[in-house]
Design goal:
Strand content: under 5%
Number of helices: 4
Structural class: mainly alpha
Number of strands: 0
Radius of gyration: 20 Å
Number of domains: 1
Order of helices and strands: HHHH
Shape: rod-shaped
Distance between the termini: 19 Å
Largest sheet: none
Length: 99
């Protein structure tokens, strides 16, 4: 959530002239706010979706690899789920800061 707010702050700071132009031609403040919020939500959803799919794929590959080696992969699954969550978070933050 903090990264999402930082991305929103950066987006607003980079577009100060654009915001001024929209206000000059009569755009309402709620319209400008909704435009930035919808952009942030869209970027977050795309990044989260990519992160979830990548995390699930990596988790599947890791669990199938542990199962093929003859180890008990039930305990490994408990480790892989948090790792997938952190991977999803890093992908989301990376894609949200990509121009």
């Amino acid at each position: 959530m903090l990264l999402e707010l930082l991305q929103l702050y950066t987006s607003v700071n980079e577009r100060i002239k654009e915001i001024g132009t929209m206000k000059a031609i009569g755009a309402k403040p709620w319209f400008i706010l909704s435009m930035f919020l919808s952009e942030a939500v869209l970027i977050g959803l795309i990044g989260s979706t990519l992160g979830i799919f990548t995390g699930v794929d990596v988790a599947y590959l890791l669990t199938s690899g542990f199962g093929a080696s003859g180890q008990d992969h039930q305990e490994q699954q408990l480790l892989i789920l948090p790792l997938s969550f952190f991977q999803m978070t890093f992908f989301t933050s990376g894609f949200s800061h990509y121009p």
